[in-house]
């Protein structure tokens, strides 16, 4: 007697340059279809790193929220966000408010936190007129394509994220921490290994050092897991960077990344990282009603510029602790 894996029960379309695509007809009952095929869909993600489910015909926030909750083992509250999101319901958000004419480069969601999502869930309720795909890249493949010397330095030192919170750009203090209480913010920072410094104008500057390479808690595969390129000043459009430096100063950008010892990361390194991501990017334009499920450790994601109106709902699910991923940099919270 032979047994098939749950993933083998679904006909997944695998083509070069595209994410795995599963086409189905949910017959107007997306929640019921997900309830029946949840384990098989998750098995596809475990095997391939992501899957785009087409044919669910998701229509609104209520149905999408129900599908998200069926697919996940638990939804997470967004913390330490770098850009504001609309909150639809507990654990269900809009995509980050990022200028539509700018590329959102590859990253792993909340890779600078001590507890981050193991799964990312995306649902398209309104597809843009052009562009706007949620693109993905396989993290172990990206890691293998990077220069050994650069990887070894990041493994040894980790990476440092510096943030300057204000009420003018990016996520505000209250949006990022869920409170505007100084005492609560300080308590969160201490508990999550974040150095903090209040500024004379009432703003907050934080620094946190994290591992750039981790091991997947299930497969043990080494993953390039960070937001080094995405949150670096050299990934910003030149005119945006020049404006921010002019207004805030080079030391007070809303966010920036450096080597773990504090040395600046040059434009050449950031360009290299983004080129390697681009070389391994796969894409499929959104269609209204689509669902995408992404293994957040194995698979980086980004967003292409777009035209027109775009509504994509997001949930962060299945929390994973950094301590369970063999981090290369020691983090002491307290």
Automatic annotation (TrEMBL):
Limits of the TauD/TfdA-like domain: 33-315
User: What keywords sit in the KW lines?
Assistant: Antibiotic biosynthesis, Dioxygenase, Iron, Oxidoreductase
List the Gene3D superfamilies hit by this protein, alphabetically. Answer: Clavaminate synthase-like
Q: Which GO terms describe its molecular function?
A: dioxygenase activity
What cofactor is needed?
Fe(2+)
Q: Name one Pfam family in it.
A: TauD
GO aspect biological process, one term: antibiotic biosynthetic process
Show the InterPro entries listed in the entry: AlphaKG_dependent_hydroxylases, TauD-like_sf, TauD/TfdA-like
Protein name in the entry: Alpha-ketoglutarate-dependent taurine dioxygenase
């Amino acid at each position: 007697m032979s047994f098939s894996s749950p993933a083998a029960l679904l006909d997944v379309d695998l083509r070069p340059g595209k994410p795995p695509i599963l086409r189905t007809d949910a017959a107007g009952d997306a929640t019921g279809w997900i309830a029946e095929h949840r384990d098989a869909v998750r098995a596809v993600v475990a095997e391939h790193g992501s899957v785009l489910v087409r044919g669910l015909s998701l229509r609104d926030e209520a149905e999408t929220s129900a599908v998200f909750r069926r697919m996940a083992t638990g939804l997470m509250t967004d913390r330490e966000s770098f850009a504001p999101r609309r909150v639809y319901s507990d654990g269900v958000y809009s995509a980050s408010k990022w200028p539509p004419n700018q590329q959102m480069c590859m990253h792993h969601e909340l890779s600078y936190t001590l507890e981050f999502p193991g799964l990312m869930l995306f649902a398209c309720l309104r597809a843009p007129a052009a562009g706007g795909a949620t693109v993905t890249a396989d993290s172990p493949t990206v890691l293998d394509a990077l220069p050994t010397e650069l990887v070894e330095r990041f493994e040894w030192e980790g990476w440092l994220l510096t943030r300057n919170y204000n009420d003018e750009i990016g996520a505000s203090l209250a949006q990022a921490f869920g409170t505007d209480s100084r005492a609560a913010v300080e308590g969160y920072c201490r508990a999550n290994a974040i150095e903090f410094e209040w500024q004379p104008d009432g703003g907050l500057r934080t620094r946190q050092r994290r591992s750039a390479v981790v091991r997947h808690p299930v497969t043990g595969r080494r993953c390039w897991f960070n937001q080094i390129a995405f949150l670096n000043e050299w990934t910003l459009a030149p005119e945006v960077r020049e404006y921010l430096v002019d207004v805030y100063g080079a030391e007070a950008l809303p966010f920036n990344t450096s080597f773990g010892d504090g040395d600046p990361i040059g434009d050449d390194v950031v360009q290299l990282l983004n080129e390697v991501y681009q070389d391994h990017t796969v894409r499929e334009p959104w269609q209204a009603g689509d669902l995408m499920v992404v293994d957040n450790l194995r698979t980086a994601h980004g967003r292409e510029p777009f035209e027109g109106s775009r509504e994509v709902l997001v949930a962060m699910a299945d929390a994973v602790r950094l301590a369970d991923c063999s981090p290369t940099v020691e983090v002491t919270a307290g």
